[in-house]
Amino acid sequence: MKPGIVQPIVLIVLGALWLLKSTALLPETSTLLALLLAGAGILLGLLDGLTKSTVVSSPMLIYAGAAIYLYDHYYLRFSHLAAFGMMLLGILLLLARSNRIPERRLSRRRNETPYSK
Questions:
Q1: What stretches pass through the bilayer (predicted)?
Q2: Pure H helices in the chain
Q3: How far is CA 62 from CA 28, 34, 70, 83, 100, in A?
Q4: What number of other Cβ atoms are within 10 A of residue 110's Cβ?
Q5: Which pLDDT tens digit goes with each residue over 24-81?
C-alpha cells in the first residue's frame, strides 16, 4: 500500500511558507488575510454565479478584505469601516430581494432525474 500524498504536500507547503517568511518575501499576516478574503469573494462569485446568496456574500467578503487592508495600512477608524460595511450589507440584502436574481444556480443537468442512469 502506498503512503498518502497529504504529508509530502503539507511538508512542501510549510517549507515554502517558511522560506518566504525567512526571506521577507511573504507579506504581513493582515495583508494575506485581506487578500484571501477578497480572493474568496471573487472565487465564490465566479464559481457559483449570480444567486441571492452570492449577491450578498461575495461583495461582503471582498469588502471585509478591503476593510482589513485599509484598517491596517491606512489606519482608518474601525467605526467608519463598520458603519460603511453595515450600509453595504443593507443595500446588498435589499438587492437580493429582487425577483430578477435567481434563488439558486440552475443545474447543468435539468432533464436528468436523481435516479436516472
A1: 5-24, 30-47, 77-96
A2: 6-22, 29-48, 54-73, 78-96
A3: 18, 8, 12, 16, 23
A4: 6
A5: 888 888 998 999 999 999 999 999 999 999 999 999 999 999 999 999 999 999 999 9
Residue with cell 509530502: 8
Please report the sign of the dihedral spanned by the C-alpha atoms of residue 46, residue 43, residue 81, residue 101. positive
Rounded Cα gap, residues 42 and 50, in angstroms: 12
Q: How far apart are alpha carbons 17 and 3 in whole angstroms?
A: 24
Largest CA distance in the chain: 58
Cell reading at 85: 460595511
Minimal CA–CA distance to 82: which of 53, 60, 57? Answer: 60
Distance CA 110, CA 70 (A): 44
**And the C-alpha cell for 52?**
441571492
Residue 64 vs residues 29, 48, 80, 89: alpha-carbon distances, Å: 15, 19, 13, 11
| Residue 106 confidence class, pLDDT cut points 50, 70, 90 | low
